[in-house]
């Protein structure tokens, strides 16, 4: 058994979960404020340069792939509580340096802000992996889907707030004030994380040694599910450009349509994360496979780009189902793998997610560069629907081969005193 059954642990775990989620909400709000504000600032400062806009977006996603592959596995070897606090502190320091650079006017402000954004993106999967590893060590297996659903709900809630607030902050104040607000969110987040209880130390695999030094191969079920994750995001990743393209090129270019689509998508994401939490007790992997089918159908519905209510409803439904898929599949992969490699598993999940998104962006650039946007974009959405359906087929195959629910992981975790404040070295 991996779960810890000590008297009094339930209250301590619940308190730590609330602290962790509160800190994450603050840090994610800071992330979205900064990302949205920097992209808007750089785009505006360079007279609407699409090259700058594309570069800024790439520097949000590409570093996440590197961070997922190179940094996320470190979460299994480090003290997760101290790592989370340290990453918040490091992000606050990076933003403080940027604030000084902006104030004294050294070099290009746009280049400096985009550069810091890229560094923050590299650190993001490391933070996510450390948070996931902490949750996997502290919570019983059956509570992991609910915790991941809460994390997803925070992601989308802060997305809505951050993307709406950042342009307003820049409009009524300036870039330094936006940076200061971001610094405050990371500082307060780090201060909250000091209150986390100790996470139990995972017991290593055969041969002993430090936790995380034994790196077993992924189970076959996890490999199948990661392929499904990549395929789904290779189709659904078009949502990153869908609101802008539909609002500008198919609905008359009104900013109001862009806001309406983004707001509906954010609401869909929040509802989907909430629904994923409700399904955790009975859905199993089957709920995730069904969600992949809904994503495929929604992408097909998104081809009605000139009918506003269908376009908005379909994209919102796609994101709703996407959250159910993500929470269900990540929970299953974490349950199938040892506790001691939760950070590595989180990094692989993030890498497959953003590799799929990157593939969808490359398809978008390739298919819309030489033909009329109306025809090529519709064809691209149909192709994305087919790819998402392939994801559902792969997930269904895994369901048939390995069952709806996972077996208990092999490794265990050592109990620790309730009043301990940091993990043992």
From TrEMBL:
Main location: membrane
Cell compartments where the protein resides: Cell membrane
UniProt keywords, alphabetically: Cell membrane, Membrane, Transmembrane, Transmembrane helix
Keyword Cell membrane appears in the UniProt entry: yes
Membrane topology annotation: Multi-pass membrane protein
Membrane spanning residue stretches: 21-43, 49-72, 84-106, 175-194, 224-242, 254-276, 283-302, 308-329, 341-365, 377-399
Domain of life: Bacteria
InterPro entries: MFS, MFS_trans_sf
One Pfam family of this chain: MFS_1
PANTHER family: INTEGRAL MEMBRANE EFFLUX PROTEIN-RELATED, MAJOR FACILITATOR SUPERFAMILY ASSOCIATED DOMAIN-CONTAINING PROTEIN
Protein name as it appears in the record: MFS transporter
Native source organism of the sequence: Lentzea miocenica
């Amino acid at each position: 058994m991996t779960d810890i059954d000590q008297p009094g642990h339930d209250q301590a775990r619940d308190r730590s979960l609330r602290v962790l989620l509160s800190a994450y909400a603050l840090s994610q709000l800071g992330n979205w404020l900064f990302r949205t504000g920097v992209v808007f600032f750089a785009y505006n400062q360079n007279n609407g340069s699409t090259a700058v806009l594309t570069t800024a977006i790439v520097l949000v996603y590409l570093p996440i792939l590197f961070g997922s592959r190179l940094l996320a596995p470190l979460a299994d070897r480090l003290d997760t509580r101290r790592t989370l606090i340290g990453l918040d502190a490091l992000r606050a320091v990076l933003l403080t340096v940027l604030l000084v650079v902006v104030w004294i006017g050294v070099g290009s402000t746009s280049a400096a802000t985009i550069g810091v954004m890229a560094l923050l993106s590299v650190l993001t999967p490391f933070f996510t992996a450390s948070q996931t590893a902490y949750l996997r060590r502290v919570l019983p297996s059956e509570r992991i889907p609910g915790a991941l659903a809460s994390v997803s709900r925070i992601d989308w809630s802060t997305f809505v707030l951050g993307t709406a607030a950042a342009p307003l902050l820049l409009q009524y104040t300036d870039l330094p004030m936006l940076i200061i607000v971001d610094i405050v969110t990371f500082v307060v987040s780090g201060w909250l994380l000091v209150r986390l209880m100790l996470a139990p130390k995972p017991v290593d695999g055969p041969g002993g040694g430090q936790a995380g030094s034994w790196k077993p191969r992924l189970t076959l079920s996890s490999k199948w599910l990661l392929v499904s994750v990549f395929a789904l995001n290779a189709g659904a990743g078009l949502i990153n450009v869908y609101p802008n393209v539909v609002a500008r090129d198919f609905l008359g270019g009104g900013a109001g349509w862009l806001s309406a689509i983004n707001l509906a998508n954010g609401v869909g994401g929040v509802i989907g994360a909430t629904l994923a939490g409700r399904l955790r007790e009975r859905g199993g992997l089957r709920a995730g496979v069904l969600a992949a089918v809904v994503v495929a159908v929604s992408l097909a519905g998104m081809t009605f780009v000139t009918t506003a209510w269908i376009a908005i409803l379909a994209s919102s439904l796609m994101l709703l189902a996407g959250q159910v898929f993500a929470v269900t599949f990540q929970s299953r992969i974490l349950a199938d793998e040892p506790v001691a490699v939760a950070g590595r598993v989180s990094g692989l999940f993030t890498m497959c997610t953003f590799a799929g998104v990157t593939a969808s962006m490359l398809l978008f650039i390739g298919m819309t560069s030489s033909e009329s946007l109306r025809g090529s974009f519709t064809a691209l959405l149909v192709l994305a629907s087919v790819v998402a359906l392939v994801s559902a087929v792969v997930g269904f195959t895994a369901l048939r081969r390995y069952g709806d629910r996972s077996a208990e992981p092999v490794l265990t975790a050592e109990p620790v005193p309730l009043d301990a404040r940091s993990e043992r070295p």
